[in-house]
Amino acid sequence: RKRKTSSKVGYTGVYKENNRYRAVISVNRKSVHIGMFSTAEEAALAYNKKSRELYGEEGKINIIKKGNAKS
Description:
The protein is of the alpha+beta class. It is 23% helix and 28% strand. It has a 3-stranded antiparallel sheet with strand order 1-2-3, with helices on one face. The termini are far apart. The relative contact order is 0.20. The mean pLDDT is 87.
């Protein structure tokens, strides 16, 4: 099976659902829901925080695009 390489939103672990953004992270090959957020950037920050908690310096971290918030 092909592996998903990136999210359409542009951040690892962040997916758009209706008008909100879902953050998920993989733990022991299972998807774990982090939360729902108003912006992709908020979801990406939540993903980054959880990634650091679970994986430390080895965790994947999103680079947040400054000024990319949609109004």
